[in-house]
Amino acid sequence: MEIVILVAVIAVVLLGAISGLVVSGRKKKATTAEKSATPQATTAPPAEPHVGEEAEGAPEAPRRTIEEVGLPAAEAPAAPTELETPEPSAGRLVRLRSRLSRSQNSLGKGLLTLLSREHLDDATWEEIEDTLLTADVGVTPTQELVERLRERVRVLGTRTPDELRDLLREELLTLVGPDMDRTVHTETQGAVDRPGVVLVVGVNGTGKTTTTGKLARVLVADGKSVVLGAADTFRAAAADQLETWGKRVGARTVRGPEEGDPASVAFDAVKEGTEAGADVVLIDTAGRLHTKTGLMDELGKVKRVVEKQGPVDEVLLVLDATTGQNGLVQARVFAEVVNITGIVLTKLDGTAKGGIVVAVQRELGVPVKLIGLGEGADDLAPFEPGAFVDALIGGE
Ligand code: GDP
After folding, report:
1. What pTM was computed for the model?
2. Cα→Cα distances 229→207, 209, 246, 262, Å
3. Has domain 196-340 been given CATH number 3.90.79.20?
4. Is the minimum distance from the CB of 330 to ligand 1 under 6 angstroms?
5. Pairing verdict, β 342-346 and 226-231
6. Mean pLDDT along residues 7-31
7. Class of domain 92-176 as given by CATH
8. Distance, CA of 120 to CA of 22 (rounded, Å)
């Protein structure tokens, strides 16, 4: 009996000790939770719940909103960026002409110097031809131009510098194609209530994402609302880069998971653009040229999927002017995959090979619509043949 009483007493003492421990443990947790709710903790990431907390029966704290919890600095939504006012697109080529002429001296000035020689013999004509070829004008257009120049110089007889300048200007202008339609089609055809859709394609590194961002600025400057689609899901930084461009002018960027399906991002961008009543959706695509088949599959799919919601209004091919013949090879491959409706030549500020404008238009039968003349946000200009040729020859 005594033994039974002793065991009972021990059991009661033990139970008391255990419950005391549990209570003090809970108190500690409660203090920690209180601490984590203090203001200085709001900038830190929310404390990770520990395995077993719930099993111990701790009352679940009411879920806090993201704002209440406070996100870690890296994830916190950035303070609203002050919106920039991009420059109007009209007159940009004139403003940027000096960049073009700085790099184009070897073409226009070189031609004028050669044409001013007293005796235009075969050797001089060959030099003229070489100058054009070096500037990437291409073989056939070069021959055509030299032939026309020879004929006109012969008819002209004596040549004053002004006459030569006018003559060269006219011929270069003919070569560049003054009558091609260079409108970037950002509007839907017909009275359909959906945004204009522009696909931007090209090999990575050509300036595709930058151009998409700059184009968004041009459109915003022209009073349009823009939604961006970050369908270059293969280059890790591309979506962030595009989003940054968009934020600067208040354009929303639709993006998907890294290495996700570019076609679905493109689809979502058009869908969101339509729902938001945007004027234009610009879609930046991935341009990995590892295999032509891969590119065909990917780009072809992007276009097909977007077209489920309506036609694509413009397909802009971005080419780096400094890559010369290589750019032409790229152009050919892309033209096989999608129906290119316009060309953007980037980095024309850094090359003396402006003749690529002529060569690529001939190659694809598609006009150059925009040119990139620098890394600045507003260094993208509508292509104007007259101003371009003037810049080549240093005229008015
Ligand atoms: P993507 O891979 O084709 O999307 O290429 P990015 O848009 O990232 O551009 C590649 C690089 O080219 C960047 O450093 C751009 O600033 C630069 N770039 C783009 N357009 C121009 C241009 O017209 N002139 C110059 N000088 N650099 C440019």
Report:
1. 0.78
2. 16, 11, 10, 9
3. no
4. no
5. unpaired
6. 41
7. mainly alpha
8. 104
